[in-house]
Amino acid sequence: MTKKILYKGAEAEIYLSKYLGKDVLKKHRIKKSYRIKEIDENLISTRTKEETKLMIEARGQGVSVPIIYDVDLKKGIITMQYVKGERIKDIFDKISDKKRKKLCIDIGRNIAKFHNNNIIHGDITTSNMIFYDKRVHFIDFGLGEISSEVEAKGVDLHVLMEAIESTHSKNSGYFKYVLEGYKNEYRNDAELVFKKIDEIVKRGRYR
């Protein structure tokens, strides 16, 4: 079967495939010829393992992420569910104000669920969320990590704030509903995270 590549970035390519008769996505980390072979193999294996772990832990906290079917640490391949929904990026500006508000609250609540367990996504944008089966599914944990730091949680939310401001500028005010959903679900002091977002914004202004 010829693989249909959906995305090819600097670190990985994602393509459609089959697994036990199902349509699946495979994320294949790309080898780097400029790195020493043993170091490259170790990095690919470690990053594949870490991403898999984050996805499994996020799912365990009730966050919708693709189901993982198989992992090949040596080749750096994660075989996962093909979530056949719509990217939030593609629908965010098209849905009604009421639906957009609800969507943002849901996004915030889900981010708080991983933050409650110190899971940092690392690249929360509207391109990395898919709406399927009436739920927001989070994809691409490739830049994620485990961290209890308020800074890391603030950065996670700040990335989404910037993504909404740049990609959905006419509806950028809806980010406040992400924070509302987050505050309702976050088990620690959400205001500390929000203050950190403000600090990050100020840092950017005064560079």
**CATH class assignment of the largest domain:** Mainly Alpha
Global geometry: globular
Largest sheet: 5 strands, antiparallel
The strand order across the widest sheet is: 1-2-3-5-4
Fraction of helical residues = 40-55%
**Topology, number of strands:** 10
Pick out the low-confidence regions.
Answer: none
**CATH structural architecture of the largest domain:** Orthogonal Bundle
Distance between the termini: 50 Å
CATH superfamily descriptor of the largest domain: Transferase(Phosphotransferase) domain 1
| Order of SSEs | EEEHEEEHHEEEEHHH
Domain module count: 2
What percentage of the residues does DSSP assign to strands (E)?
15-25%
Structural class: alpha+beta
Radius of gyration: 18 Å
Q: The CATH topology of the largest domain, please?
A: Transferase(Phosphotransferase), domain 1
General description of the model:
Helix 4 packs across helix 6. Strand 1 and strand 2 (about 10-20) form a beta hairpin. With about 210 residues, this protein is an alpha+beta fold. The radius of gyration is 18 Å and the shape is globular. The chain has a 5-stranded antiparallel beta sheet with strand order 1-2-3-5-4, with helices on one face. It has 6 helices and 10 strands; from the N terminus they run E-E-E-H-E-E-E-H-H-E-E-E-E-H-H-H. It folds into 2 domains: about 5-80, Phosphorylase Kinase, domain 1; about 85-205, Orthogonal Bundle (Transferase(Phosphotransferase), domain 1).
